[in-house]
Every structure is written in C-alpha cells, then in structure tokens.
Design a protein that fits this description.
Helix content is 9%, strand content 39%. With 404 residues, it is mostly beta strands.
Length: 404
C-alpha cells in the first residue's frame, strides 16, 4: 500500500513501513488479502468458453472431463530492458493448451482474449499463424475453433503513453492527472511541486512531452578524492557532501547523489552537473563563499555561466572550478559545498585540496525500467513506475494546466 499524495513517500507518510513483530498495520492485511484475490479474475470460464482477462503467469484446469489445462506465461509488462533497447521490447503473453495424459485430445471451445485499451497495436498468432479476426482495443478477440492439445496462442502488445484525469469535478481536483505507460502508473520524483503546464498540442499527444529517459554513460556520482564513500548530494535544493549511509538503498540518498555530467560550452574540460532526479536542474553557484544550489535552468546566458564548471587537476585529484573559485567543503558548516578561492597561506593548501578534489565514481542510481522524462513549459520531472519506488518521494497525480 503506497501513498498517492503529492511528494509522499512510504517511510514519510503516516505509519511508514511496518516491522515483523512490533508494527503491522491493518493495510498490511488488506494488501495480503488483495494478492490472494489476484487469481479471481485472471480467467473466467464455463464448460466450453474461456475468458483471459489478465496476462499473469498462471495455470487453469480448463476442462476437467478432458484433463485440459490452460497455461499462461507472460513477460509482462515487458522483457528485460537494457540501455541498448530504447524504447523497450514489446510485452508478449503465451497461452498453451496442455494435458498430463499425453493424449492428442481434440475439443471445441471458444477462447476470448482481452484486448487492453493501453495497447495501440495488439497482434495474435495461433500456432505461428496470424489471427485474422477482429482485434479491437477495449473488447475481446473471439477465437472459436476445434483445439488440439499443444495449441499455442501468442499475444503481442504495443504499450502506449496515456494520461487519465481523476474522476472528480470539484475545481481543486479536476485538473489532477496521472501518467501511464501501458498499465504502469508513472510517478514523478518530486517533493511537493506537481504543477505541469502544457499547451493544446501537447495535451493531444502524450509522447510529445513524455520521452524515454536518456540511457547513457553520463550518469556519475562524485565522491571526495580523500574519502571515497563521501559524495556530493543535494537536499532542499542545496548542495552538500554526505557519507554513504549504512544502507544506501533506504531514503533518497542514491537519487540525490547521482548527476548527469554533460559537456559544457566553454571548451574541453567544462561540464554541467544535472540532478538525476530533477532533470533541468543543475548545480549552480550563487557567488563566492555561498553554498551551491540545485537550480532550474532558465535558459539565460547568466545561468549557463553560473552552472558550467571547469575540471582541473589539483594535487592528485580533480577539482571543479568556476571563475576564481572551486567547489569545496573547506571550513564550511555541516558539510556544505561552497565556491571558494585557494587560501593565501600555503599551510592551508593541503587541507583545502583535500576538501576540493573529487572523483567521478559509478552512479549510485540508474534509470529504472520504464523511466521517462515529462517536459512541461514550467519544468521537467523524472518519471518512474510506482511499483519500482521504495523509499523515494514521489507524486502520482500532476496538476495539469493547459495554456493556449
């Protein structure tokens, strides 16, 4: 049971996660009960008709008098998706008619296959031959014939991006909209902000503003050269260093300490650091001796100047320089990162270099299966399937405004 309010997370909402012995909320019982009910509607059947409603791995004793079983196998919602497959391969389900008797049984039956609304192009093959009957989204495909044990039906889907508005006409709620890829609810990695401003053309074509996350080698985490488990991260849109927690998978540390490192426009060695979970937001300087911040790119030349860093060698490590200042935690409070100049005293250089040199490490976070970027006129959001979320803060419903 996951919360659906704006900027919520499971550990931060209400009861949070339960424990094996001391806290077991009533919703846990409801969740367990819900899983036990999944089999209620995978299939509906009568003596000679089988309805396939959900494409979940399962097996059904279809015809007891003939000892015929219907075995359903699916890679749903999709097979493994790697960085070279973008968009991902399409999901496929296979229904096989089997019998433990080993006999070549023939029987007449109707198999009704649900054609989901979220698939833009569903295809069906029976024993490797294309099905020629009507296949209409939101209905069932009717396969009536004489079947033989060993028959195999393959159903292929092409999921689409689509949006659904909440069923509430009250003014404060009617603009709330969820984003889906096929049957998967995509949630935005954000705290409280859920505003999404679109135009009339975008609202007609979800794929024009929801695009696959850029799977690439640009993702990195930056650790202190002198402390390999201490990473640059952002919190409250301010930039800090933090030692990796004992269990880095808990909370938002992995997301907050990963950045897309992209080339700057100032020549070789210049880079920009875009927050992994806040696309369009970059580490930016606000002035010498001020804490760095993660700010939204407003497209101005001034912002580009404040968010492009030069990678330079400092001692035995790499420093990030902007003008006469360096990203550094030297003598800062609570591990804040500020823009500092090299101390005048040579006796301070070793400590300054230690606090100002970083290594590009492997990323603490990577884009999950079915990650997308939603791009409105006001900002961008990283979208991930709700079923992939653990402790992260997210928003399930966006407040969508359509402007002319």
């Amino acid at each position: 049971m996951l919360p659906l309010g704006p900027g919520n997370s499971k550990p931060g909402a209400g009861h949070g996660w339960g424990t094996p012995f001391d806290s077991f909320w009533c919703c846990y019982g409801t969740a367990v009960e819900s899983f036990s009910k999944l089999t209620d509607s995978i299939f509906f059947k009568s003596t000679s008709t089988l309805y396939v409603n959900q494409y979940i791995n399962s097996i059904l004793h279809f015809n007891k008098s003939l000892a015929v079983y219907a075995e359903l196998q699916s890679n749903f919602p999709a097979p493994a998706w790697n960085t070279s497959a973008n968009p991902p391969p399409n999901p496929v389900a296979t229904l096989s008619l089997v019998s433990p008797t080993g006999l070549m049984i023939r029987f007449n039956a109707t198999i009704m296959l649900r054609i989901p609304m979220w698939s833009v192009a569903t295809s069906i093959e029976v024993n490797n031959e294309p099905f020629s009957g009507p296949i209409v989204a939101g209905t069932y495909a009717n396969l009536t014939r004489t079947w033989t044990i060993g028959a195999r039906i393959m159903i292929s889907f092409v999921p689409k991006l689509h949006i659904e508005s909440i069923l509430d006409d009250r003014p404060m709620f009617k603009s709330l909209t969820a984003i889906f890829y096929g049957p998967l609810l995509l949630v935005g990695m954000t705290t409280q902000d859920r505003s999404l401003i679109l135009d009339n053309e975008q609202i007609k074509d979800v794929a024009s503003w929801v695009t696959p996350a850029p799977y690439s080698d640009e993702l990195h985490s930056l650790c202190l050269h002198s402390a390999q488990t201490t990473f640059i991260h952002h919190s409250g849109f301010e930039v800090w260093v933090q030692q990796s927690p004992a269990d880095p998978t808990q909370g938002t540390f992995q997301h907050d300490s990963t950045f897309r490192v992209t080339p700057g426009s100032s020549g070789a060695g210049s880079v920009r650091l875009q927050a992994f979970n806040y696309p369009g937001f970059y580490i930016s300087a606000k002035g010498m001796d001020q804490q760095l911040a993660v700010l939204q790119d407003d497209g101005s030349a001034a912002f580009k100047t404040d968010s492009e860093f030069e990678t330079v060698t400092m001692g035995s490590g790499t420093a990030l320089k902007l003008g006469d200042g360096y990203m550094s935690t030297y003598k800062t409070a609570k591990n804040a990162i500020t823009l500092q100049s090299v101390p005048a005293s040579a006796s301070d250089h070793a400590a300054f270099f230690s606090a100002s040199t970083f290594d590009m490490a492997i990323p603490n976070a990577r884009y999950k299966l079915f990650s997308f970027i939603a791009s409105g006129h006001n900002r961008q959001y990283l979208l991930e399937p709700l079923n992939a979320v653990v402790d992260e803060e997210y928003t399930a419903y966006f407040n969508v405004t359509v402007q002319a």
